[in-house]
Amino acid sequence: MTQSKHSIPNNEKRDKFVMDYLPLVKYVVGKFMIYLPSHIDQEDLIESGILGLIEAAGRFKEDKNVKFKTYAFHRIRGAVLDYLRLQDWVPRSVREKDNLIKEAYNTLEQKFSRTPQPEEIAEELGISCSELDKILADIGMCSLLYIEDINLGNDDDDSRIKANEILKDNKYTEPLNALELMEEQEILERAITDLRPNEKLVITLYYYEDMLLREIAEVMNLSESRVSQLHHRALMSIRAKANKSKAPQKVKTSV
Fold it and tell me: Which of 82, 132, 210, 213 could form a disulfide with 122 if both were Cys (CB 3.0 to 4.6 A apart)?
């Protein structure tokens, strides 16, 4: 079989992409590690990320008006998330706590007709604020997996891949799936809009600007632990609102 005259240059370009952007894999994995228990092997995540990078290098098309770094970032993140989902490492007790907090949040929001404060949620659950923050840290990855499933991109080439690029080049190929993704994105954006200013800033810097928590701490002149706390509380609020918006509404019928 005669080798295409374009195959060697293309392979060289692919290999150069992989070598040049290996540090991006470590960066992405580093952002995940703050949520993960110690038994999760960082090297396994790096391996998954490298596979995502190789896939990105092989599938990247320069005529898409998306920079390779943006495209690779999405592919690496997706590969790591897929690995974590397959591990199903989140204990049942953590999932139960997650559901209890969401229920308490929605109950108080309905009662007060406003976003409940962390102190009020802690009181509703019969725990202290510090205990609530510890639980939020434990369930952080549950929230992160939800947030990461929804594109937060904007119109900037240096930001994440736009939603329509994901729809063209990911598992969301059916029209119904595409519609559901767009609806979830709208729900998520509304939930972020309703956050308190400091929580909104943390979410924006972390998910839109892809900054590390220590970098956000420097920008906001706060401790890294305080930024982490704001991040967890924001995720709690986002997920509670998102789950409420997606829940089927009861239809009133006349007797």
Answer: 132
